[in-house]
């Protein structure tokens, strides 16, 4: 993997972090506006993500966190829980699998 490809991967992941938070805020608060965009950018470029910019493997869980929160919120507040349960299980499963395999890989590297 070249340095350019690595940088493109980091930019893509930061974009996905902002997109999933923007989606969460739009579903939670309704109509999208400047506040949603600003909050999504603040989430994507928070101190946590910038402090761990060299460890891109953990960014997958930060990308999926708003989707997990949206699934939990939907299960609690909505009457039709079927689609929200599926969304929650899918997002949480992807997050757990991603972190599990990354942890296994890092155990053998270090």
Structure description:
It is a single chain. With 110 residues, this protein is mostly helical. It is 82% helix and 0% strand. The protein has 5 helices and no strands. Helix 1 (3-29) packs across helix 2 and helix 4 (59-77) runs antiparallel to helix 5. It is flat, with a radius of gyration of 16 Å.
Set down the secondary structure blueprint:
Blueprint: H1 3-29, H2 34-44, H3 47-51, H4 59-77, H5 82-109
Give the N-to-C terminal Cα separation.
20 Å
The DSSP helix count reads: 5
Strand/helix succession:
HHHHH
Find the structural class using helix and strand composition.
Answer: mainly alpha
Reported for the largest beta sheet, the result is: none
Stretches with pLDDT under 50, minimum 5 residues: none
Overall residue-averaged pLDDT value: 85
Shape designation: flat
Helix content: over 70%
In percent, how much strand structure appears in the residues? under 5%
Work out the radius of gyration: 16 Å
The number of strands is: 0
Looking at this protein, list some descriptive labels.
single chain, 110 residues, mainly alpha, 0% strand
Summed up, what is this model?
The chain is an all-alpha fold and 110 residues long.
């Amino acid at each position: 993997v070249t340095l350019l490809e690595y940088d493109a991967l980091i930019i893509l992941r930061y974009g996905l972090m902002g997109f999933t938070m923007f989606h969460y805020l739009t579903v939670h608060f309704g109509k999208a506006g400047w506040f949603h965009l600003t909050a999504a950018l603040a989430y994507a470029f928070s101190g946590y993500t910038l402090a761990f910019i060299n460890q891109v493997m953990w960014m997958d869980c930060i990308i999926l966190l708003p989707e997990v929160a949206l699934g939990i919120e939907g299960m609690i507040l909505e009457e039709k829980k079927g689609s929200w349960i599926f969304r929650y299980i899918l997002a949480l499963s992807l997050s757990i699998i991603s972190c599990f395999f990354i942890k296994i890989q890092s155990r053998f590297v270090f």
